[in-house]
Design a protein that fits this description.
OB fold (Dihydrolipoamide Acetyltransferase, E2P), 2 domains, Rossmann fold, 6-stranded mixed β-sheet, alpha+beta, 5-stranded antiparallel β-sheet
Amino acid sequence: MAEIELHQLRKTYGKVVAIQEVSLRIPDGEFLVLLGPSGCGKTTTLRAIAGLEALDRGRILIGGRDVTPLPPGKRGIAMVFQSYAVFPHMRVLDNIVFGLRMRGVDAEERRRRAHEAAELLQIEDLLDRYPAQLSGGQRQRVAVARAIVMRPDVLLMDEPLSNLDALLRLHMRAELKRLHRELRSTTVYVTHDQVEALSLGDRIAVMRDGAVVQCDTPAVIYDAPAHRFVGGFIGSPPMNFLTGRLHRADGQLGVEVGGTAVPLPPSAGAALAAQGSVTIGIRPEHITVLFEAAPVGVPAQVSVLEPIGSHQLLTAQVGSELVKVAVPPEFAVEPGRRVWLRFDPVRLRLMDPATGQAIALAP
């Protein structure tokens, strides 16, 4: 078993708080992604699990064993860094088995494990080459192979794809997902790329200012962000946010946006009883553009239309705020045109305008 438990981790550098009260439970075999912007504490958290950072306080358990005071070599972990960190004077085979040789594993066992890892990562024909003869993607595979031959309890990855070009990153994401499915090792993966996080993770822990804002499955993180920060960070483009006054007419509760009352679900009544205003969040793909006024259509003016292949991205101005809308590739409209936006009420997410916290609705 290689379950990881983080209990109230805290790390400071002088007056700077890098991680604050981080607590997570990562079940055996799970692929957890630590996601957030630069400086949010995700790499520091990963390095703390690895034993490369001494904590101010907190405990780290791996497989039920308290590893907090142990050095990296005693924790049963392997790590893949952002830089490939392969030895240029060694062949690929020697790079892969370097850690095994340091542990005194016999030559035959080293070779067997190296060939198994090379087969998994599809680099069997590269074992006699030197790093200078490899592409960036191939070098990264060598770094991953060097980690998995150690048969670690936990595999840690710190932005391993960030040095690759876009097409190669797409390919390597699929390779890493396949590799995890075959190995089922407990994996903690750090990235600032939300597409990477959504495609790879069994769960995503979104971090901000050294703390975990939300930890859940990719589907929940995307569809039901627990905080405005999460909705604004996840998605390309991210979630739209509009703040309006609560409005009730004929028993229907809504939010007045741009002079129009956007209807809210009946279950919102109790949750919003004490609110004077509320922020609504809506994804670009959950908005319909109308060319004629409609009872629940929010008036807007088209600012720009951007073709991006599978769809177009329309930017419209609602009052002083901009709203992004995903429209079909054949959609045609001129900038400056007046339109009306209809929000899917089932997909509306409500947030406190003061705190940014999501407002939970009754089921």
